[in-house]
Amino acid sequence: MIKNRRKQKNHKFKLTASIVILLLTAFFTTACGNVGSDNSYNNEKTPAVSENEENKNLVDLNGVLKVHYINVAQGDAILIQCDDENMIIDAGKNNKAGLVDYYLKEQGVEKLDYVVGTHPHEDHIGGLDLVIDTYDIGTILMPKITATTQTFKDLITSINNKDLKITEPIAGTTYELGKATFEILAPNSSDYSDTNNYSIVIKLTYGDTSFLFTGDCEDVSEEEMVAKGLDLKADVLKIGHHGSRDSTIDEFLLAVDPMYAVISVGRVNTYGHPHKRVMDKLKEKNIDVYRTDESGTVIASSDGNNITFNTSPDSYDYRDGDKSGLVDDNDDSNYPDGSNNNLSVETTNDDSEIFIANIDKVGEIVTIKNNSNKDQNLKGWTLLSVTGNQEYIFEDFIIEAGTSITIASGKAQGDIKWGTANIWNNTGDDNGILKDNNGNIISKFTY
Length: 447
Ligand SMILES: [Zn+2]
Fold this sequence. Notes:
The protein is an alpha/beta fold. It contains nine helices and 25 strands.
């Protein structure tokens, strides 16, 4: 079901001048529409200036802005596309890197004009190293806070390898993404006790519609934004910190006053996200909620006047107490030593520290990464191509701590050669499974 509601705004008049400019711009430039492969939206063009009094202030941006809240289970990964320009905010955990990469390729992304690492927790920056390695990169925005984890080191290595620079987010700075603009709203301090509060908060505006992206920012940062009197008003709010009770304080929600909320959260997570306190507030205010744990990837499209979604709104269900006592809810990333697999309750051992990072099906190369602190001999382990039911059994081969190896088939070259036949099915689904020498599934790579 596609929802298409129009919201009355009080700031229409100040937009009039910019509408005229935008109309002139639109007249001389080509359309941006049709980014990506999904055509399931209501993408009708709205008349620029209508005789009809009702439509008088509609904007014609001659295209569509798309915001993809990619389903990366517990974590965030958001792709924003407008006028052939692309931006990514976070890229999920390490073991979701391949999935994010695949998703971007599916959308035809070749360059990322902006890469935002909201804060250095693994469920946000884990996949960013592969993104940096793979695409043409423009501006990288990351807060001024470091982490001692292997994940963070990997990201910095990838940035350095391409001679890229990190831009510090300065609140109040605005950037352009095609005909959309975005403004940095946070962080507003240089020192927080909780890493989550360093999260870069961004307000994206496209015509008369707006989106707020909050990373994992919590009450402290939300209070600062409210106290500064920033224009937080937005149509779509990405709920902070996967729906944790430490985010989305009343004053903040009141100031944002969203029509829609999106929660990026894992179906199975040890934190009990999203929490009752947050879900109750959204329900009470009758805010439509879209959740990656219920709908999978959520795509919002804006023509500058209306926002439509690729799916119908989800439930106000919460998980408080599901896994209580297992882990400190304040930290959804990993332990200081970089390990996090012991937090996993995924049945597929999805958060293993040794995992399939990518399957390049066309290139016939599988990348396996060892994100743990110790070397692992893969002797007796198996890599399975599910569709063709082909199995590669590893011989004596050590994957060193913190490194990746490649397994090549067909004409490809890699650290290990899996025969000369092509293994991976290029057209349909072909998932990869990695099993240890006892036959336990260690990692599953799913398209
Ligand atoms: Zn997070």
